[in-house]
Every structure is written in C-alpha cells, then in structure tokens.
Amino acid sequence: MRIRTILGNTVLWIFLLAFAFITLIPVVITVLGSFKTNAELTTGATFLPSSWHFSNYAEAWQQANFSKYTLNSLIISLSAVVGTLLVSSMAAYVVDRMDFFGKKIYIGLQSFTMFVAVGAVVLRPQFDLMVKLHLHSSLWGVILILISAHASIFFILFSFMKGIPRELDEAALIDGSSLGRTFWRIILPLLGPGLGVGALFTFRGAWNEYLLPLVFTMTKPELQTLTVGLANLKYGISAASQTHYMMAGACLSILPILVAYLFANKSFMQMTAGSLKG
Amino acid sequence: MNKTKNALFSYSFIFPSALLTIVLGIYPIAWAFRYMFYDYKGYGTARFTGLDNFSRILKDTQFWDSVVNTFVYAGGKLLITIPLALLLAAILNRGLRGRQLLRGIFFMPTVISTAVMAVVFFTIFNSYNGILNQFLIKLGLSDSGIDWLGPKYAMLTVILVAAWGAVGNYMLLFLAGLQNIPEDVYEASALDGASKIQQFRYVTLPMLGPVMQMVIMLAIITALKGYESIMVLTEGGPVGKTEVMFLYLYKLFFPIGGGSAGVQVQEFGYGSAVAFVSAIIVGIISLIYFYASRRMNQTD
Amino acid sequence: MMKRTLMTSMSLVLALGLAACGNGNSGGGNAAEGSGDAATGGSGEKTKISYWTGDRHDADFVKEKVAEFNRANTDGIEVELVVKGDDFDTALDLSFQTSDAPDVIRVKENTIQTFYKKGFLAPIDEFLTDELKAKFPAMPDLNEFDGKRYSLPNYGTTMRLVYNKDLFAKAGVENPPTTLQELVDTAKKLTEAGKADGAYGFALNFKSPSSAFARSARVIAEMSGYGGFGYDFKTARYDFSGLEPIINAFKQIKDDGSMLPGVESLDIDPLRAQFAEGKIGMYISYSSEPGVYKNQFPAKIDWAAAPAPTIDGMVKGASGFLGGQWLSLSSKSENKEAAWKFMQFMYGDQVLTDYQEKGFGISMVPSISAVAATPDVNGIEGFLPNKNDGVWPIYPAVAPEGMKSDDAFFKYMLNGGDLKAVIADLNKRYNAALDSAIANDGIKAEPDAGFDPAGLGGKFAK
Fold first, then answer.
1. Using CB atoms within 10 A as the burial measure, which of A276, C121, C202, C249 is most buried?
2. Could you report the predicted ipTM of this complex, rounded to two decimals?
3. Distance from the A204 Cα atom to the nearest Cα atom in chain B, whole angstroms
4. Which of the following CATH numbers is that of domain A63-271: 3.40.50.2000, 2.60.120.380, 1.10.3720.10, 2.60.120.40?
5. Residue from C407, C399, C356, C395 nearest C377 by CA
6. Partners of residue C90 in chain A, C-beta under 8 Å
C-alpha cells in the first residue's frame, strides 16, 4: 500500500513537472526574447540573449507611454469586471431560480450572440449608437460595449448557480428575507469561485482589448489605453517590426493580469483553506 | 400576488443584461446580417441579390474545406484540452504541496497575447532553425527535422499551440467548479473507504456535472470560433491547410495583405452570408452537444 | 465578503471613472487639451486642423515639421498630428460617422481609390496654381479622378532584386541574374556554395502568398511588359498567362532545393533577419529594405540591389514605381483653406528634399529628385529610379469567387499540377467578377489598344 502510494506520487510528479516544463518554455522564450536585439530575436538562432539589453524595457515603457495609459486600461478593465459580474450574476440568479415569461427567449438570445462572430464589422453599428448617445469619444462607450458581451460569463455563473443548494435561499426566503436581499447576502457569497474566475477572465479580456479603445479614443489621445500604446511599439523608423520592444512591452503588460490572478486565486482558496482541519 | 411580485423582481434583475445584449449585441449583429441578401463591397450602394450569396456558399469549396478544417482543429484542441484541464484541476484542487505555484504556472500561457505568441512559436516550430527541430536532431530523433509549419504538420502544430493556450483557462474553470463542492461530501466518502480515484469517479464528477456541462459547451463554441492564433501563426496556410471557418470569414471582411500588395476588395455581403451559415453550424453543434449532455445537468 | 469587495471596487471605479473617463456630451469646460475639439477654446482665434496618418516610419520627422509649421505660420493655424498604426482605415471609416473627421488624410496607392469612392476626399484643384500643376505630375487613378486632383506625389517605392554579394563571390557568380533562367541557375549555384553553412539561394515570404508575389512576380511581370496583377490594360481583361513562366521558375527553384526551407511559413521580417545573417542569396522586395538593414537588422554581409530580372532578358515594360500621392484634403473639413496651407507647407521644397535626404523615401517629384542628394542609407543606390522605372496605371480590383490568384499559384508551387489549367480557371473567374463589377459597382475598365508598357519608364530618370 505504502509503496503503491510512493510510486503513484512519483508518476504524478513526473507528469506535473513535465507538463509545467512544456507550459513554461514559450513563456521563458518570451521573457528571454525581450532582452535580445531585434536581429537576434527575429533570427531565432539563440536561446539565451548573447548580450542583455535591459534598455528594451526603458524604450518600451517610454514609447508605449506606460505611465500615462496604464490608468486608462485599469479604469476600463475594472469597470468591465464590476459591470459584467453584476449584470450577469443578477441575470443568472433569476434565470436559475425564478420562472417568468421570456426566460427561454433570453437564453436563446444570449446563446445566439455566442454563436455569431462577425468580427470588427459590428463595430460600425455599435459606434453609430455611441455617437447618438454622445459616448463615442469617451471610455464609457468602451466599457458599455465590453459589459454587453457578457454571454459566456452569464452561462458560467448560471451553471455555478445550479450547484448552490436551493434549500439555502428557500430557507432565507421563508425567514422573511426579500429576494434582493437573499441574492445579495446568500447567493453572491456562495458564488465566490465562479465570480472569481469570471472576474479574472473579464479583466484579462478587457485589458487586452485593442480595437474598441483605439476607435473610441481617436480624437482624445489622452484617453488611450495600454494596448493601443503597445500596438504602436510594433513599428519604428523602418519597415520591419520592432519585435524586441513588442516583447518587452508585452512582458510588462502581463503583470497586472498576474496581479488580478492572485486576487482571483484567493476565491478558489477559500474553501480549501477552511477545510484543512481534517 | 406573490407571483406578480416574483415576475417583477425577475424582470428588474434581468433588465440590465437583456438591454445591453439586445442593444449592443443583437442589434449590431442584425445590422451586419442584413447584408447577407446584398452584394456590398463596403462603399457605394448595396445591391439586393436575394439568395445569390447562399447559392455561392453551396458551391464554395474553400468554405466547406474550412468547415472540415474547423472540425479537425476544434476536435483536436478539445480532445487535448478538456481531459488535461480536468485532470490538472482534480490534482491541484486539494492537498498537494506546491499546488499554488503549479496553478500559477499553468495559467501563464493564457495571458500572453497572440501577437507575441506568433513570434515565439515561429522560433520554436520553424523548420529552418526552429528550437524544436534543433532539439530533435541533437537527440537523434530526426535526421533533418520536421516541417512543423509545412503542409503536412501545420494543423497538428496549430492544434498544439491552441491547446497550450487553453488548458490553463479550463483548468481554472474546473477548479472553481470543484470549489463549489462542499467538503463534507468528501469526508463522508473517505469514511466509507473510497480511494482517491473512486472518489473522483463517484463523488467529484457527478457533483461537477452542471459546471462541467457548461464549461465544455463554452470550450466547444470557443474552439469552433477560434482563429486568431492561427491567423498570426500560419495565416491559414500553407495553401489553406489550417484555414478554419472564422479565419476564412475574417479574410472576406478584412483581406490580409496590406502594404503595397494591391487594392483589396472587402466582401461585406458575401461575408455576412458566410457569417450567418457559420453561426448556424456552431449553433447546431452546440445544441446537439447540449441535448447529448443533459444527463450531466442533473443536480443532486 | 465578496459583496464588500464588489462594493469597494465599484465605488473606486466610479470615482476613477468620473475623474478620467472624459465625456462626449459635457457642454464646454472639457479639459481635453489639444484634442482637436472645435475651436471653442478662448486663447486667440486659433484654427485647429487635424492630420491623420498611418505612417510610422517618418513619424518623428513629420512631428518635427508639424511643430515647425505651428510655430511659423502667421494665420493662427494649429495642426494636430494623429499617428495610427494597423487600423488606420477602420478608424478613418468610423471618424466619418462623427463630427471629428480629420482635415488632412494620408492616402496611399492602394487606399486613395477606396477613400475617393467612399467620398472622404475633396478635390484640390481650386488651390492649385499652374506652377504647382507643372511641378507635381498628375497620375490618373493615383491622384486624379474624373479629371480632378485629390493629392500630390511626394515619395515612391521601387522594387529590386536584393542580393548577397559575399555569397555571389563565394559561388563565383559575377552578376545578378537578368533572366528567369539565370535566376534559377544562380539560386542553384548559390545554394551549392552556401548549403554547408545553412545558406540558400532564394527566399520569399510565402506565409502570405499575396504579399510575396506582390513584391516579386509582380515586378518581373511588369518589367517584361505584363500587368503585375494579371490585368491586361490593352484588352481590359484579366489574363494571368504572362505570369506563367515566372511561377514556373519559382517552382523550379523550390523543386531544386534552392529555396530556404520553410518558406511556406516565412514572414518578411524573419526573411530579412536571415538575409542579414547571410543565409539567403537573393530575394525581391521594395525600397524600404535598406532602411531595415540600417536600423533594425544590421547586415553582417555585403549586399546590393539590382533591377529585377525579366522573363527572357528583354525589358518590355517598366518596373513599378509605386506612389503618386501623399496628403489629401478631407471632404468633411470645415477649414479647407487652413488645411491647404498646411499641405502647401508640407509640399514645400525644403520638406520634400529633407524627406528624401533623410532616407524616408525616394522622391517622385522630378524637380526634387533633380536636386536632392542620395539618402545616406547603405544599399539605397540600387533602388534609385532608373530609366526602366515607371508608374503603372491602376487595375480594377475585383473579388472573384473561389481561390485568389496568389493562393492558387502558391498551391501549384507546392503541389504541382497543370499550371495552364490553373491560369485558365483564374482568367474565367476573375473576368466574371470583373464583368459583375462593371455592371453593378460602377467599375470602369476600357480597352486601350495603344497601351505601351515600355513607354511607362524613363520619366523619372534617363
């Protein structure tokens, strides 16, 4: 029995470490690449940089205007997270727990938006709408459009909602708690893991969104986001891409997503931490 | 009375979501879709052509090839991604020392942008001086290397890259789902003397049902719609070997080949028709899956 | 717990957002300085105009010149420069839905027709003096539509065969190839000489066949008297048969093993990087290459550029000199006079001369090329216009059903087959699309029996 456990553990760790290695190799190449010259990086012959160019980071920081645009990116991403979670968790709650006319239609519409991809073509009508609302040169336009694309987060939360025993909220309702209060006090806290992962995915999506902020800040450069700045890194004074700066910029812009991951990870931790008693 | 109150409450809670979805989701799609009955190149007047675009789709072998490619690509990606993600989630859910670090590592690929991925995977896979081939040759596993991005292996490479970028996502979703399972269920089964594997089979999987059903559904839709990593890695080539449905569609709206590569004509009308047919294909597959998997959705 | 986090972050976001999100409908008092909002600001009577460009290679230079104009002009005009990257066209499209469309737009040889058709551009004839008309050549479809001028040329792009002199010397080849047969043979010799060091005779960026052929097969066809994109200007029909020997030669090079392995997934930048390392003997590309080897991929080899080969060594046409336009006036501009003053400044001799001398592009204005010095960029000499460079007319672009010509040709190069049948099929589909475009989209395509491709050259250099 004991030998079997040891053997099992060894196999398990070999699998985990091998897979971690495969996963990390491209990431390591990215980080190492960000210290190379453009020629060395694009030639692709070396693994380690032949000399370390830390200046790539200074250049990327400056050219992409990190200090200026990071705040705009944060505003967009955090607003999108809060809006998306709020809108989708409210919808998921009533769709799972309530019965009302139009529920099936609503689910149908949400699925439909997921099946379709017309790419940037839908940008035109979205933009026209925002022009009518006078939001076409403001980050609010971007945020609203980002929140509107919440179908997948809705479906994720919807499935998590099913995992929460109905007895819990029914008991609260019998005790005289209102529906809104039950949602707020009972359901949302229990939805923790789903909200955590939903927040993380929304943050990542919004943080990397490029075309929307580009278009909505056309006439207000001071509202541009980091992705727009990063895209500008690609081209320099000649026709070739400045891949080395692009990589350095990418490595920097990953950091906020990793911070978001650490926060989200806490929501996966909650239960496990509480269960270590056994 | 209570019923009306509940209905009112429901509508008020679903209102923000429904409003945003209809105004900024459905309406723009409808706006784009109306061109499917027109010949429209992005400027001038659109010319009504009835069902011409659809009869063109029927004859469009490039499109149907891309549909086949899509099934291969999505199938391959899902077959690798879902079992791996589930396995990793199950291992990293409880107990194991170092699981925090490992989770972080497996999540890393999902934050790397597609533009950077293109450069990195070209460095790894290109047949001239790619890292992987150098490695294989050194180990004596191959004489002159494998043409990973050539006609024969490009699809496999593209699938591997896609799976690399996706496993972390689904691992996290499954992990979150596992966290939803109350601890006492495990304790009860452990008392009954169930082994780890038995626990997974008879406790974890059924409890994970609804979440798993939805996550796999999202994975299927995402895989069917995926094109961005293919676009940057191979642009659908060589000679269409990795051209998937939504990449073909994207190129109709936004022809690749800027610079001085001649004037490009955008096909809004035909593109919309292709977008519509693609949506129907994705929808049908999702529905088939949904009905086939409804057993997973039985809670308790 | 979750709720508190949610509430806190929400209020945080709201506070941040209200402070920084900017708001389109706030009446005045908007703190967006220099954002090109209508001239409501108090200070003086500044006329604000905006210039949008997708060019990044000359951004610093243009920025400097804009600042100079803003300082020096006495009409109280202030130009705001907006530099956009990849998605310039999308942004421009959408800006024309608003009141914030730019006043001056950078147009290119492959965008000016579309912008014109979309009604973005205003004619500039009313501003043109006879002197200007004489100085800047009119080019139909490139800066002139229906008899009206919409832009003026500044710089142009030539196409050449770029070759590795060191590898040529090693292989004992004296001169760059001038015929397709020589191209095939040279590629073979270079590969034999270089293969031990991993060097190959020829390469093109076939990751995107359209990008690869548009810089290579196109110029060989043009030099040999055929339209570079398969369009015959004499008959006003598509006929790809002129490209047949060129595609066959490329296929031969590939079959001989004289092409860099993995060209089917090669992008232009990795190609350049390998050339700079000395791993590629020859390729064909635009005059932007010397700048790349100066700034991005310092070449470790001695290289030069030569005219592209022709099919049989006879020059029967002109090597495409791409350009003919630079700045255009927006049809939505409310300050066309002021915008024109800015354009006039940018088209002044000093700016145009500097533009060439600093190496941003080769001048296409005869009076400038006559006096401007050769740019200080190694390798540019080979790209300067010669008697065989000329401006081709614009062909009517169509969207055929089925596979595009570039993909069909590359497929033949990889898989073989019957090239004549491929071409017959392309001709059929492209001409059907052309007929439809003529009938429905108002595209014009009229035969020009007297069209003489050889007569296109000689206008920029003797």
1. C202
2. 0.89
3. 7
4. 1.10.3720.10
5. C356
6. 120, 123, 211, 214-215
**In this complex, which of C113, C206, C441 lies closest to B263 when CB atoms are compared?**
C113
Mark which residues 286-305 of C lie under 8 Å from B by CB: 286
B-C Cβ pairs (cutoff 8 Å, strict): 118
* pLDDT greater at residue A265 or residue B94: A265
Please give the DSSP secondary-structure letter assigned to residue B139. Answer: T
What CATH number should be reported for the domain holding residue C301?
A: 3.40.190.10
Give the residue-averaged pLDDT of C353-382.
90
C388 at the A interface (CB within 8 A)?
Answer: no
Q: 85-114 in C: which are within 8 Å (CB) of A?
A: 85-87, 90-91, 93-95, 97-98, 100
CB atoms within 10 A of CB B138: 9
Per-residue CA distances from A270 to B94, B177, B178, C8 (Å): 12, 13, 12, 20
- Domains of chain B and CATH, by start: 37-111+154-256+263-297 (1.10.3720.10)
- Contact between chains at A236 and C56 (C-beta distance less than 8 A): yes
What's the rounded Cα separation, in Å, for the pair C454 and C310? 13
Among C387, C362, C177, C203, which Cα is nearest to C278's? C203
pTM of the entire predicted model: 0.89
A-contacting chains (≥3 CB pairs under 8 Å): B, C
Q: What's the pLDDT score for residue C418?
A: 96
Q: C278 with C343, same domain? A: no
Highest-scoring range by mean pLDDT, B181-195, C172-186, C358-372: C172-186
- C-alpha C72/C-alpha C53 separation (Å) is 22
Q: How far is it, in rounded angstroms, from Cα A244 to Cα A49?
A: 11
| C window 277-296, beta carbon within 8 A of A | 277, 286, 288-289, 291-292, 294-296
pLDDT, tens digit, 9 for 90 and up, residues C373-414: 988 889 999 999 999 999 998 888 888 999 999 999 999 999
**What DSSP designation does C391 have?**
P
A118·B207 Cβ contact <8 A: no
Here the tokens at position C26 are 């706030």
Confidence check: pLDDT of B143 > 70: yes
Is the pLDDT reported for residue A272 higher than 80?
no
Higher pLDDT: A94 or B118? It is: A94
